[in-house]
Amino acid sequence: MTIYVGIDLSGPSNTKETSIALFKGDDSHLTFQQIVNGVTDEEIYELLQEQTDSVVIGIDAPLSYQPGGGDRKADRALRKEIIAKGMKSGSIMTPTMTRMVYLTLRGITLSRGLSTTTSASIVEVHPGAAVGLRSPDLSSVLTYKLEIDPRHNLKAFLEKDGVKDIPTDVLQSSHSFDACLAAYAAWKWKQDKSEFLYPAEPPFHPFPVSC
């Protein structure tokens, strides 16, 4: 059995909005195990170093930036995909934008640290796109970050796709639900069932981007 971890990351000075979700998964099902909210980098390391099974981590944050600034190729490609599905282009932000740069800094630091202290596979994910590129319920995809009812609708969609046992209290926070969606995206990536996949391009972009 593989442990699938979803991390909804926030900036380094706002860790109360960071959530981490752990699931166990096989080829057919992804089963909820644990959610931890308000986690620091130290707590993320401790939690992952406790795992004895193989681990796949999906991180919702830019894990690289484009030399010289601006969009990465992956950002442009994913933005094109979500626009075609009716999602908002602004949900894919340039990693070096003022609103994003601190999140990018934390994402880069955390991913490099995890890659050297664990044997986990790491993938950059976009939770909204992971469900938005699959679910026919566009209204819920567009509003789930602001309202709880759409989260219930998307939870029902996930259950039909093999995701089991997400507690209803997880739906109280968009951050905890996004952590679950990040784990779902990582599970799909590991199964070679990505709806969007941009390969890693080391050394500047060492992790793939998948939804």
UniProtKB/TrEMBL annotation:
InterPro entries: DUF429. This is DUF429 domain-containing protein.
